[in-house]
Automatic annotation (TrEMBL):
Name the UniProt record assigns to this protein: Bacterial transcriptional activator domain-containing protein
Residue segments, region Disordered: 81-101
Pfam families: TPR_8
TM regions (residue ranges): none
Alphabetical list of SUPFAM superfamilies matching this protein: TPR-like
Superkingdom as given in the UniProt entry: Bacteria
Organism of this sequence: Streptomyces violaceusniger
InterPro entries named in the record: TPR-like_helical_dom_sf, TPR_rpt
Length: 101
């Protein structure tokens, strides 16, 4: 079948991992939560679901921040912001040019 690819269903699988991560996080199993959030992130990055990715990166960043892993938390937040600010998603135009030195 021509319409089926390896990425088909990635949004649903990513959503399932997100939910499993939320459940693990609520139970205090931060290791499992991080694994599920990272699996969801890996799946969703290929789909272009920018809002879902941003939300997932927020969840992962918050988890890492609570664990005291601030650099990793900032990386997760930046990843989410990067997907939200992808070309065509902002109305303010490109970033200003660097001033000449």
């Amino acid at each position: 079948m021509a319409g089926l690819t390896a990425d088909r269903g990635a949004v649903h699988a990513g959503g399932a991992h997100r939910l499993l991560g939320l459940i693990a996080d609520e139970r205090g199993d931060t290791e499992a939560a991080e694994e599920h959030y990272c699996a969801a992130l890996s799946l969703l990055e290929r789909t272009g679901a920018a809002g879902d990715l941003a939300d997932l990166c927020r969840l992962l960043g918050d988890l890492l921040r609570r664990e005291g892993r601030l650099e990793a938390a900032m990386d997760a937040y930046r990843t989410g912001l990067g997907h939200r600010a992808a070309p065509g998603t902002t109305t303010l135009g490109p970033a200003p040019a660097e001033p000449p030195m």
